[in-house]
User: Which sequence fits this backbone?
């Protein structure tokens, strides 16, 4: 199985997601700290699923500061056949955010932080991985 | 009589455009001047006697000193009226000056016209009395005098009209400014709420997640478990700091944090704070030096604990953002001896100009986890303001170091240029702004006698802003009809009121209007809500107890006042 690519700038949350996905779900994980030209990394790493934080203060897109929404939009607009499903992660959980972020980014799903129901979250990931190109 | 102004103001030009075509030229009264000028003193005397008898008109004049002043200026005005060559611009200029003066004290047009009619009676009576020539000559003279006064009355009405238009326009512009500012505040608050929510959720996410993994028995190996426990503990501590900071910030913001100012030596305090930081600086390979820059005492009057908190925060910041070189803390009394300057200079990362301007806003640096959460400087700023100082940051640019400077009131200082009464150690400060010297003194005495407050009484808007900028205040009492003594940018108290309402240092300080006017006269300005209460001077004079009770009630929440 291709790894789940976690892009998260907070080291503690990154640790948690890694442990959750590796130890509880049993999936391989690739971590990015969300700094620099993240898009190239997203395109390069073969992944079964991308978990993408929205707030990435150190991320750059064509040299300019960016966020997960813009990165996802660019990734999804790319031509390659093997763009994995993307789950946006954010602690910006205010009513209406989910719809707005999903519409703006073209992401497949949205997960608010903190993650209250891990099992539901893992089920969502599992379903998306099942849909990922080249899985089966 | 002053020479003609080279460039008539816009309202005068408009006035002439509006009124001019209807009026023709003013009659020449030069031949009447020798006859009437010696009698003008008597005319003015009779005029003000009638005003003394009218309670409504009297309210706009004030004390006997004001009567004397006005008497002299009325004589001068009548003299000019008789002697001026009949050019319309000069007549209109005089009318406009009068209309502006009357608008400033809130005198309505009907009273002005009544006064004008009274003056006409008096002048015509004097003309009749002084006339020694033939009857047709008298008829012509009184006709010319009447027409000149009619014209004057018409110009006065037009001048009132144009002044009102000017006021309306500036009021509209000011309202638009305030509106913009309020929108900014609302936006900033929404942003703060969103950012706060984000900043709280982030450590909670890691904390809850790892805790849950522990509960699920994910970590079999004891070493991994211990490491996760350590991480959870760190996240919880971090969260606690954040919550404490938020609480501290909001307490300072609403003025609830109690400060206990004491005289203490800023150098000693800086050394003791530096000693606590010394091991961390040594570990990072950075120097840390404390010194005085220049002679003079650096004793300050401030809450020592908060003072140390501000300095610690700045040192912590400097430590985090400096990778080589070091940090210098310099202390110096400021010229004028009213304040002491504390400067924290590092050789670190520096700041881009765009960040400098909003550095002291909550979460300005916001996101970098290693840098804390950007509340420290917001707390510093509010603490320093509350202690009566100012704080600022300078940086030549990224990579070139940062200098933070804050000021604190010097121990045992007296603010220059202000009248002071009351106990200098009293923590409650009331700023009184009124250009009426008698009223200023009486009210300051009343407050100082009846309440444990420190009253700073000033006469003009500029001094008021200086005081408001230098010292934390608990209440501002101001008149709206301030004379513009210095020819500065304040037309009157309303401008001052707006400045105080929009300035971050005084935004939250209650502002009470204390004036001789009806609220109705203020119109749109009052509706803007720059003031928190409205007091009529006559009401305070009649029942000072009500006024004092209201102040006690207001201040009771801040400091325990003995009634």
Assistant:
């Amino acid at each position: 199985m291709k790894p789940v690519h976690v892009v998260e700038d907070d080291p503690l949350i990154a640790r948690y997601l890694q442990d959750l996905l590796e130890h509880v779900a049993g999936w391989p994980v690739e971590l990015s700290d969300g700094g620099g030209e993240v898009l190239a990394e997203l395109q390069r790493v073969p992944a079964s699923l991308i978990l993408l934080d929205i707030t990435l203060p150190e991320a750059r897109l064509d040299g300019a500061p960016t966020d997960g929404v813009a990165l996802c939009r660019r990734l999804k607009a790319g031509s390659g056949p093997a763009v994995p499903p993307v789950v946006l992660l954010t602690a910006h959980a205010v009513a209406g955010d989910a719809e707005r972020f999903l519409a703006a980014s073209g992401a497949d799903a949205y997960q608010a932080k903190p993650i209250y129901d891990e099992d539901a979250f893992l089920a969502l990931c599992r379903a998306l991985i099942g849909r990922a190109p080249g899985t089966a | 009589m002053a020479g003609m102004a080279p460039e008539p103001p816009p309202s005068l030009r408009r006035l002439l455009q509006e009124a001019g075509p209807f009026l023709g030229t003013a009659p020449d009264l030069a031949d009447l001047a020798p006859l009437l000028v010696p009698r003008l003193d008597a005319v003015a005397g009779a005029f003000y006697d009638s005003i003394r008898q009218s309670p409504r008109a009297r309210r706009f004049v004030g004390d006997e000193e004001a009567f004397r002043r006005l008497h002299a200026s009325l004589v001068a005005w009548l003299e000019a009226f008789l002697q001026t060559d009949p050019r319309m611009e000069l007549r209109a200029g005089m009318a406009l000056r009068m209309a502006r003066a009357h608008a400033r004290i809130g005198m309505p047009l009907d009273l002005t016209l009544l006064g004008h009619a009274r003056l006409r009676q008096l002048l015509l009576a004097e003309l009749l009395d002084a006339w020694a020539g033939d009857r047709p000559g008298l008829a012509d003279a009184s006709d010319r005098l009447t027409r000149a006064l009619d014209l004057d009355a018409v110009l006065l009405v037009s001048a009132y009209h144009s002044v009102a238009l000017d006021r309306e326009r500036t009021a509209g512009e000011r309202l638009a400014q305030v509106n913009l500012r309020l929108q900014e505040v609302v936006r900033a608050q929404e942003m703060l709420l969103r950012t706060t929510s984000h900043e709280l959720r982030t450590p909670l996410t890691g904390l809850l997640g790892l805790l849950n993994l522990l509960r699920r028995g994910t970590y079999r190996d004891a070493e991994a478990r211990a490491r996760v426990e350590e991480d959870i503990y760190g996240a919880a501590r971090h969260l606690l700091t954040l919550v404490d900071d938020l609480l501290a910030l909001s307490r300072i913001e609403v003025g609830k944090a109690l400060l206990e100012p004491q005289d203490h030596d800023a150098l000693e305090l800086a050394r003791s704070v530096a000693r606590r930081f010394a091991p961390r600086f040594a570990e990072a390979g950075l120097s840390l030096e404390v010194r005085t820059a220049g002679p003079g005492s650096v004793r300050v009057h401030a809450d020592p604990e908060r003072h140390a908190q501000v300095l610690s925060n700045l040192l912590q910041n400097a430590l985090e953002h400096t990778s080589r070189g070091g940090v210098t803390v310099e202390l110096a009394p400021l010229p004028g001896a009213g304040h002491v300057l504390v400067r924290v200079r590092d050789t670190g990362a520096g700041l881009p100009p765009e960040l400098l301007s909003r550095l002291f806003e909550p979460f300005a640096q916001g996101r970098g986890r290693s840098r804390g959460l950007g509340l420290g400087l917001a707390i510093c700023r509010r603490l320093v303001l509350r202690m009566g100082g100012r704080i600022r940051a300078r940086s030549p640019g990224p990579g070139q170091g940062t200098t933070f400077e804050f000021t604190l009131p010097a121990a045992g200082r007296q603010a220059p240029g202000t009248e002071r009464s009351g106990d200098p150690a009293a923590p409650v400060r009331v700023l009184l702004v009124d250009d009426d010297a008698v009223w200023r003194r009486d009210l300051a005495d009343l407050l100082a006698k009846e309440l444990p407050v420190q009253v700073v009484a000033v006469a003009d808007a500029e001094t008021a802003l200086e005081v408001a900028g230098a010292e934390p205040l608990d209440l501002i009492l101001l008149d709206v009809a301030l004379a513009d003594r210095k020819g500065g940018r304040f037309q009157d108290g309303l401008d001052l009121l707006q400045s105080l309402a929009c300035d971050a240092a005084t935004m939250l300080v209650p502002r009470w209007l204390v004036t001789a006017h009806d609220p109705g006269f203020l119109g749109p300005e009052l509706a803007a809500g720059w003031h928190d209460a409205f007091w009529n001077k006559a009401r305070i004079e009649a029942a000072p107890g009500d006024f004092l009770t209201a102040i006690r009630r207001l201040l009771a929440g801040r400091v325990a006042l003995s009634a």
The first strand of chain B starts at residue 262 and ends at 265. The interface with chain A takes residues 194, 197-198, 201-210, 212-213, 216, 218-219, 228, 231, 234-235, 366-369 of chain B (CB under 8 Å).
